[in-house]
Design a protein that fits this description.
Elements lengths: L2 H9 L21 E6 L6 E2 L21 E6 L2 H12 L5 H20 L3 E5 L4 H7 L3 H7 L9 E3 L11 H8 L3 E3 L12 E9 L3 H12 L4 E9 L2
Parallel strand pairs: 3-8, 4-7, 7-8
Antiparallel strand pairs: 1-2, 1-3, 5-6
Helix pairs in contact: 3-5
Bound molecules: zinc ion (ZN) (2 copies).
The site of one zinc ion (ZN) has 6 residues, from loops.
């Protein structure tokens, strides 16, 4: 155990957001674990992961995504955690998020796809400066996941929560671009899994998937910590 961690545990102990028990920011039992694939359009839950196309046949025309995997249900408890992490300086929540990602990687993803990489949903430069950190990248950095920052955000979009569905979609058009640095690595890349914190309407993930597919990536899946059902 590293010294900084021992120091923090003694002088800045963590308390559960729900029951105030000492030790972690969230006890496992307050969270609704899904650990499943879903159709990105109609949110149909797929019970098994031994399938290659994880979007219903009728929904495929409406999305660029081939499926989405989510760990938790986006309920009131999870919303509190994400809010605290993004806006209330609870940076060390990252350790708990990364821990769940590592479990998923070992249990599901390693066996499901061959030769794939994770791509974080990027934030706009000024947003990162305001917040002081890139909240999505930080989770991947702290996990065992191999990732590449293939996407760049080139447009400062309005907060998604404040717009309706049509506005969200229009808002996001042209928001992402391929990071030229990684263009050469595309040649042999068949499968990408985009990573984001939450899936609500799926507009952000869909726009990111569009850019990747237009640049020749065959399979584009998404992985999110939580999904709104
Ligand atoms: Zn608790
Ligand atoms: Zn569907």
């Amino acid at each position: 155990m590293n010294l900084i961690k021992i120091f923090l545990d003694i002088f800045a102990p963590k308390y559960c957001f729900s029951c105030f028990k000492k030790g972690r920011y969230f006890c496992f039992e307050h969270l609704n674990v899904l650990n499943s694939f879903f159709c990105p359009v109609c949110n149909l839950r797929f019970p098994t992961v031994e399938i290659k196309k994880i979007t219903c046949k009728n929904c495929r025309k409406k999305t660029y995504l081939d499926g989405i995997f989510s760990i938790f249900l986006l309920d009131e408890n999870f919303e509190k955690l994400i809010y605290a992490y993004k806006y209330k300086y609870y940076y060390d929540l990252v350790n708990e998020f990364s821990e769940y990602l590592n479990n998923i990687l070992d249990e599901k993803f390693k066996y499901l796809f061959k030769n794939f990489i994770f791509v974080p949903i990027p934030s706009y430069r000024t947003k990162i400066n305001e917040r002081g950190f890139d909240h999505i990248k930080l989770i991947l950095e702290n996990s065992k996941f191999k990732y590449k920052e293939i996407l760049k955000k080139i447009k400062n979009t309005k907060p998604q929560a404040k717009s309706n569905l049509k506005e969200r979609k229009e808002n996001l058009v042209g928001a992402f671009e391929i990071n030229e640095k990684f263009k050469d690595e595309f040649k042999n890349l068949k499968t990408v899994v985009i990573f984001d914190d939450i899936k609500t309407t799926g507009s952000t993930l869909n726009e990111a998937a569009k850019v990747l597919k237009n640049n020749g990536i065959k399979n584009v899946f998404a992985l999110t910590l939580a999904i709104k059902l």
